[in-house]
Design brief:
By secondary structure, the chain is an alpha/beta fold. It has one domain: TIM Barrel, CATH 3.20.20. It has helices at 30-36, 58-67, 83-91, 112-123, 136-143, 161-169, 186-196, 218-228, 230-245; strands at residues 2-8, 41-48, 71-75, 94-100, 126-130, 149-151, 173-176, 201-203. An eight-stranded parallel beta sheet has the order 1-2-3-4-5-6-7-8. β5, α5 (136-143) and β6 form a beta-alpha-beta unit. α7 packs across α8 (218-228) and α8 crosses α9. It starts with a strand and ends in a 5-residue tail after the last helix. The mean pLDDT is 95.
Length: 250
């Protein structure tokens, strides 16, 4: 089955890396990623900027050029970035801005609403949040007003699942990624999340799974089909992400 990998990282030491909470990740280059994914029918994916990459765009532009058609970028930007820069980044294949509430390295959350509306109006981008779902009740009134938003790693915490389900029902996208990061049984929760909004759940590998208690395994991919069935899995593994990311096909 085809996969659009909705969440993975490229870590290339040729470009700036910033220590985050005393942590600097090992390299995981485009070549490493392609090698790791040889056994998949990979149709594209989203390269996501991590906390350790801060506002650097050079690594991301180089990665998208090397990976080629079908791949897009999720970057981190200051709220005062110029319109001209946003247009330039969009032309290079970048499709979203990330707010990293979990680890930092991104713009402050107080700019979320204005920035989300601005990038969507200018370039059709969405915003992505790396956030513990226990924080979602406080953010809920803001999130449901945003034109387009997605939440990483199933929200991480079982305690926040009720709010995550409400957000799915309201049209917020959720990434079925980082299965080794969450504190609940993905096998039991995934069908409930899918039922809340079959068009808004997307799968990603989270490679190379930096700082995850349990890194990505191929069985994570297989689990999606096992618990959802082939037809529904096709939406989560491929079709849904295409609607959000609008990847260039060359």
């Amino acid at each position: 089955m085809k996969l659009f990998d909705a969440h993975f990282h490229i870590i290339d030491a040729r470009f700036p890396l910033t220590t985050n909470n005393g942590y600097l990740p090992p390299e995981f280059t485009c070549s490493d990623y392609v090698q790791r994914m040889q056994g998949y029918t990979l149709a594209g994916g989203a390269v996501v900027s991590g906390s350790f990459q801060a506002f650097d765009q050079s690594y991301l532009l180089a990665a998208l050029q090397q990976l080629g058609a079908g791949f897009v970028g999720v970057t981190q930007l200051p709220a005062n970035v110029s319109d001209a820069e946003l247009v330039k980044l969009d032309a290079a294949g970048i499709r979203a801005v990330r707010f990293n509430l979990k680890r930092g390295g991104s713009e402050d959350i107080r700019h979320l609403q204005d920035f989300a509306c601005r990038v969507h109006e200018l370039a059709g981008w969405h915003v992505e949040l790396y956030v513990d779902s226990r924080e979602l009740p406080e953010l809920y009134p803001t999130l449901i007003k945003l034109p387009a938003v997605s939440i990483d790693h199933l929200g991480l915490s079982q305690a926040g699942l009720p709010t995550l389900l409400k957000l799915l029902e309201q049209g917020v996208w959720v990434k079925a990624t980082g299965f080794g990061r969450v504190d609940f049984d993905v096998r039991k929760v995934l069908p409930t999340l899918f039922a809340a909004n079959p068009a808004a759940l997307m799968f990603g590998t989270d490679l190379p799974s930096t700082r995850a208690p349990r890194p990505y395994q191929d069985s994570d991919f297989e689990l999606v089909t096992e618990v959802l069935g082939s037809e529904n899995a096709r939406k989560v593994l491929y079709e849904n992400a295409l609607q959000l990311y609008r990847p260039p096909w060359g």
